[in-house]
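User: Hi! I'm a student and our assignment asks us to look at how structure tokens line up with a sequence. Could you show me two examples?

Assistant: Happy to help. In each example below, the sequence comes first and the structure tokens follow. Example one:
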Amino acid sequence: MTASHGLAVEPDSALDDLVVGDPDLVVVPGGGWTDGTEHGARAEVERGALPDAIAARHRDGATVVSVCTGGMILAAAGVLDGRPTTTHHGAIDDLRETAANVVDARVIDDSDVLTAGGVTAGLDLALWLVEREFGTDTAETVAREMEYERRGEAYRGD
């Protein structure tokens, strides 16, 4: 996959090729929801294969995480049903039309499902994941090295 600014990302394997319990964490990026691009989040929801694969990974025990309108893919997968969640402000009305419980927060941690608003909220989400897994000191060190000031606490849904 090539991102919007030319960054190439090469997966180790396709989601459908993974076995139960692998991976532990699935991160779903957004983009392309409001403009309807052919390779964005809206197109993936319409195709259905990616939401189905994410739902299967979640059922197998993976923690799923979305940034920006990746939350719409998680909603289509059904993993946000009844859960506190957020997405990019441009898709928030669409998210409200799903079974998700939309919360006004930058980052939401509901145990095995985490969501973040727009792309810069993804930085706060990433640092929250570092804190959750490795502790506050490590997350603060990473933030300092990035010269990034964290914005608020994660909303805890659990």
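Example two works the same way, sequence first and then tokens:
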Amino acid sequence: MGKNYVDIEDDNGETLRYRKHINGRGLVAHGAKVHPEARVESGAYIEPGVRIDAGAKVAKGAWIEPNVQIGMGAVIDANAHIGPGAAIGARAHIGIRSMIGAEALVADDSIIADDEKIATGARIRTDRRGFHLAA
């Protein structure tokens, strides 16, 4: 049986240790808190200070930067990028290859379409069809 962690050197020459999440084998940095009932698929990266609630799913290739909050039942699709300090509400859905800017807030039940970019600090609320509403 192989080891349950991976060491990766960052741009500053510091080594960060990532453990493989029990549900999906995605890489979770030391200092991140991922609920055991969340799913982090292999190939996803969760950085330090991230909090992911129960029932959330982070797909292959997604990158969650430091200090992000992901609510219960939220879905982060493949190759999405969530910027530092962003908050993704409960049951929100972030589409494939979407980019959420730093400190942005995506409200509960919102849908962000595939390939969409949300600006730094934006406050987004959508209806269930993905139409943007006043936040």
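Here is something you could point out in your write-up. The two ends are 49 Å apart (CA to CA).
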